[in-house]
Automatic annotation (TrEMBL):
Pfam families attached to this UniProt entry: DegT_DnrJ_EryC1
Similarity remark: Belongs to the DegT/DnrJ/EryC1 family.
Protein name: Perosamine synthetase
Superkingdom assignment: Bacteria
GO BP field: polysaccharide biosynthetic process
Molecular-function GO term, any one: transaminase activity
Record organism: Leptospira ellisii
SUPFAM superfamilies reported in the protein's UniProt record: PLP-dependent transferases
Amino acid sequence: ALGSKYKGNEVGSLGDAATFSFFGNKTITTGEGGMVLFRNPEFAERAAILRDHGMSKEKRYWHIEVGFNYRMTNLQAALGVAQMERLDYFVSRKRSIAEYYNSIMKDMIGITLPPEEVWAWNSYWLYTFLLPEGNERRNTLTDRMNLDGIETRPVFYPIHIMPPYRNYIRRDLSVSESISGRGFSLPSSVNLTEEDMYRVGDSLRRHLPTILRREV
């Protein structure tokens, strides 16, 4: 969500704390790792201690808490700072890609495009839309676009159906399950060329109409 806005405010500035991932496929990347933002300086100070083995800032090699090794290397930090300087460009590029995909699918009945409310500013880290119910449609579209040399991605599985959490969440989360089964993510890297985008668009135009008519 880095670069997104809610009612004019940057996401990450809305609560007491916020976290951002810098994994390789995120808008800003350091290869791995991430950052935590705090409104309260005391929380920030404690987090800095915990990420450095719980070591005291005043007494070297003296551990005042059980901590972790969450330190980012200088090389990773330098990469992240350099990319932050290009964040506005990255978001602008991703929004342009999203606008192009929207223009292709906006009139296709059965497709739910990623929404953007009037009070929001979507950074489009991923461009994800929803197909009608039925996994066979998504599987068919995946296979056909793969034959066109285009890699796509399904939406992640809901946490509550995974083995470590299955026994702890017992409520109805059918909406999450539905979105997981219908969500479809298209290539949205800032490194996509215009030719890449047009190839994706051409593939969607050729395959989606028949898939939406259940001619799969």
